[in-house]
Design a protein that fits this description.
Elements: H1 2-22, E1 27-30, E2 39-42, E3 74-82, E4 91-100, E5 110-117, E6 120-128, E7 138-146, E8 151-159, E9 174-176, E10 181-183
Antiparallel strand pairs: 1-2, 3-4, 4-7, 5-6, 5-8, 8-9, 8-10
């Protein structure tokens, strides 16, 4: 009787040991042949979602940093009076060439003209163009004047005088007329008479 009980207990013990070896906390025991301990198959794990974890891709759009200067560069390329030696009350043209030597188109812009006579300010005027200047383009503008008194005149031209337009360089917006203009009364030619012609 005791022998039979011991055999039963030993069988239970063996079965328990075999059962422990065939199980895995991360898998499932699949029996193969009778008496086999089985094969452990790892449990399928769920792949965590990566939404929002990948770095944003570049859209290819370039954004200009806040406060960055534009690529406009307005200058006074030339300024001169025509004619250079007028008589009083003769019509005179002040010809000016404005240029945008930058790489970006400009909108309309202001310019000032200050004319001096014998070193003192004679007239000062402010203007605004009706159109802008494309990159690399230039435009000639003309203002007409009449000078009633004789003297030496010259002009100073300022483009974008109040820096309303952000430019590459703000220190090249000024030019003095290339040469001074002389307003003078024409010399009257006199004819002389020969007294000898009236003698016999």
């Amino acid at each position: 009787m005791k022998k039979a009980v011991m055999i039963i207990l030993l069988a239970i013990l063996v079965i328990g040991v075999l059962g422990c070896k065939g199980e895995d906390s991360t898998g499932v025991v699949i029996p193969s042949k009778p008496g086999s301990t089985g094969t452990t198959v790892p449990a399928e794990t769920e792949t965590p979602s990566d939404s929002g974890s990948q770095p944003a891709t570049d859209s290819g759009t370039t954004t200009t940093p806040s406060g960055a200067k534009t690529k406009i560069d307005l200058i006074v390329a030339d300024a001169y009076f025509n004619p250079a030696f007028p008589a009083p009350n003769e019509d005179v043209e002040l010809k000016m060439i404005f240029k945008n030597q930058g790489t970006e188109d400009s909108g309309v812009f202001d310019y000032n003209i200050k004319i001096y006579k014998d070193g003192s300010v004679w007239k000062e005027e402010k203007f605004t163009t009706t159109s802008g200047l494309a990159r690399g383009a230039q435009d000639k503008l003309t203002q007409e004047y009449t000078f009633s008194s004789t003297g030496t005149y010259y002009a100073e031209i300022f483009v974008d005088p109040n820096d309303k337009i952000s430019e590459i360089t703000e220190t090249n917006n000024y030019m003095r007329s290339k040469s001074d203009m002389m307003v003078s009364t024409p010399v009257q030619k006199t004819t002389s008479t020969n007294d000898d012609d009236n003698t016999n």
